[in-house]
Amino acid sequence: MKDFSASTTFRVEYGETDGQGRVFYANYWRFFDRGRCAYWMQLGLSEEEIRHIEQATVMVDVHCTYRAPAVFWDLVCVRTRIAQLGRSSLRMEFAVAHDSTQALMAEGHATLVHVDLVSNKSVPFPAAFKTRVQALEGRSLDD
């Protein structure tokens, strides 16, 4: 669970569970969304910058592997890092764990592409954004 640059902790809500009392599988992607926003905040982006990056990127791939169930009122932690940063795409990785036991509940990744909202074509990330990400990650992420 080390080498993740950002994290957020929250309780599982009753409405996030299914008839078996476990977190409904699709809600782990919502947990990944929380992790992504926590990453932007850890990166030091302003609210305006977060709104912009969320609007100017599209999700092109998402994957989740379930390891152990989470249930109502569990305190979970989502850890997030950027593993790859290309010209106009990035790959985020997520680990969802029980906060006190550190038991891994789910892990996954998502690929986002930076697009021009008018042409709907991929465009490069700004150099300043890439510099901030690499500083937070503590390493070069160049392809």
Structural notes for this entry:
The protein is an alpha+beta fold and 143 residues long. A 5-stranded antiparallel beta sheet has the order 1-3-4-5-2. Strand 3 (75-85) and strand 4 form a beta hairpin. The chain starts with 5 loop residues before the first strand and ends in a 6-residue tail after the last helix. It has a single domain, classed as Hotdog Thioesterase (Thiol Ester Dehydrase, Chain A, Roll), CATH 3.10.129.10. The chain is built from 3 helices and 5 strands. 22% of the residues are buried.
Name the descriptors.
143 residues, alpha+beta, five-stranded antiparallel β-sheet, 5 strands
- How much helix, percentage-wise, in residues? 25-40%
H/E order of the elements? Answer: EHHEEEEH
Per CATH, the architecture is: Roll
Low-confidence stretches: none
Rg from Cα? 16 Å
Q: Count of helical segments?
A: 3
Categorize the overall geometry: globular
User: Main β-sheet, in a few words?
Assistant: 5 strands, antiparallel
Question: Helices and strands in order, then pairings?
Answer:
Blueprint: E1 6-11, H1 27-42, H2 47-55, E2 57-66, E3 75-85, E4 89-98, E5 104-114, H3 127-137
Antiparallel strand pairs: 1-3, 2-5, 3-4, 4-5
